[in-house]
Amino acid sequence: MKKIDPIFVSALYYGINKGIVNIIGTGGQVLGRKTAKEMISFLKEEGVIREDMSDEDIRDLFVNVFGLSEDLNIEDRGEEVVFHVVKPTLRPFLERIMKEKIIPYICPFIYLLSEIYSQNKGYKLMFKNTAPEGEGIKLVFKKIKL
Fold it and tell me: What is the superkingdom listed in this entry's lineage (predicted)?
């Protein structure tokens, strides 16, 4: 089976996010959340995800099914959740947006991962910050009670 080159996907995500920032600005947050919800609906209908996914199921989804990183570690710190993305496949995209200080409104890790993770937990996750971490990236989210 032929696979899509990660540099193309990085360019796609970069272009989408750059366009959103230039045209919509901070309204891109709403677009990011809505996009993630539509992606989740699509993936559920395709049988790729389900409601009651464990941390290990989510890790497997992002690492082995989507192929978005070599590993994904999830750390619940009480008031916040940290996703440690190890050797992300879309590293060129992530490096470019961090370098240019572009907020990634459409990103497989920001809204999609946080939406899937917080399903059925009684809280939502609000993006707080991101930081390089060795050969990966650390994504920090604040828990918001429903």
Answer: Archaea
What 3-state class would DSSP assign to 30? helix
What's 25's DSSP letter? Answer: G
pTM score: 0.89
- Rounded to an integer, what distance in angstroms lies between the CA atom of residue 70 and that of residue 51? 24
Residue 129 above 90 pLDDT? no
State the CB neighbour count (10 A cutoff) for residue 9. 17
Q: Which helix (H) or strand (E) holds 139?
A: strand 136-145
HSE, CB side, 13 Å, CA atoms: give it for residue 40. Answer: 20
All domains of the chain in start order, with CATH:
6-145 (3.30.1380)
